[in-house]
Amino acid sequence: MASVNSTYTIVARLEPGHLQDAIGRVFLVDLSQLLARTMDYGRHSSASQSGPASSSKFHHPYFTPAEVDYLSAKQRGKLSATQEDKVRQTACSFIESMSARIGFPRRTIATAQNLYHRFHLFFPRKDFNYVDVAHAALFVSTKMHDTLKKPRELLAVSYALRYPDLVAKSKNPGGEVDIDIVDPQVVENDRQRLLAVERLILEAICFNFTSRMPFPYVIKLGKAIGASKELTQFAWRIAIDVHRTLAPLQYPPHVIALGCLYLAALLSSFEQPPSASQNGALTSHGLVNKFTKDGGWLKVYHTQAEDLEEIAHTFIDLLIQVAQHPSANTSPSTPSSPSPHLPSSRSQQSLNPHPPPSPFKSDQLIRLKIQMRETEHTPRPRQPLGTADPSALYGGDNAAMLGKNEGTMRFLFGPPGVAGHV
């Protein structure tokens, strides 16, 4: 194979209907131009330390909780879990603020947040500023959803959020920064870092640009199970902020959607008197009973009650955090349709906006968690794909090869035992 140091091999898993002439076909994507303009992250210091001549990286669409815990602990370094979560929420708020100014649709924002979370399952936090990773995650997300913006356009919005004094110097009536007034060397350095991290994100997702969101499922499943319009809207808002957590990396979108509907019913009914049904829709209390007293109907949606309860606990923990620390940028009232431009008077607060007070008190949420623990199902065991030890999949040469130019890395569009098989 020619030019082995700058060539990636990407093996696509195709649907059965497209396999007549494609079985065993290997697509070679020469990324030499991309590698030439990006940094050589983690280059080995000597030939004796170099990795194998070739290796494979499998795309994992979802991870088990054991895998997420192992990978997060490995990459957080000396940070505590609380400190790591604070950085995660700050990055998600930064992505939200940039997207609100530009006017990105919700699918672009949610995908960017997912990419940020996935990136730091494979790359240590100490080596990257959250701003650089957020830039690159949003840039990749715009490509995935055909809402493309150039790196300089993203940087201009970022400068407006991070450096409000530049907004005052700019003549742009929309409160944006005229990037021509910024030092060209600074802009170029930031652009190079964005492109460098973009390359690493592409490697982390194995160049698999599939992205499925829970939002359409919230609407469809809400109608299917008889939820009211108001409850479905509440579940939609929960689905927005659930992307601040790692739940979308662990469960497919239809399970996330059902979890959001379940949680919306829980929050609407807990310590509240029963309400009358309107227009034949199930009340919040009725929907909670439907979820908790599973008569097998969840199997129709290929979902298990244990997973819905875990999703609910994950998001309640987020609500408890914002209730105890209002400046944590984790409000569940994120707008579903961000306006293209924010008033320039808010520029200084846009990077770390203070969310409106949570309607839920922390002690109330803790009581809800206790009540759930008393009646919920035992969490089902979920083994990592291919082995019971998560470190066996992510602690070897395959993970170490990410971001390096040595050898050839083969990216497969599926997990071990699935990629290449029908």
UniProtKB/TrEMBL annotation:
InterPro entries: Cyclin-like_dom (IPR013763), Cyclin-like_sf (IPR036915), Cyclin/Ssn8 (IPR043198), Cyclin_N (IPR006671). Residues 326-362, 374-393 are annotated as: Disordered. The keyword Lipid biosynthesis does not apply. Pfam families: Cyclin_N (PF00134), CycT2-like_C (PF21797). Gene3D superfamilies: Cyclin-like. Keywords: Cyclin. Residues 93-203, 216-317 form the Cyclin-like domain. The keyword Lyase does not apply. Residues 342-351 have a biased composition (Low complexity). Coiled coil: none annotated. Belongs to the cyclin family. This is Cyclin-like domain-containing protein.
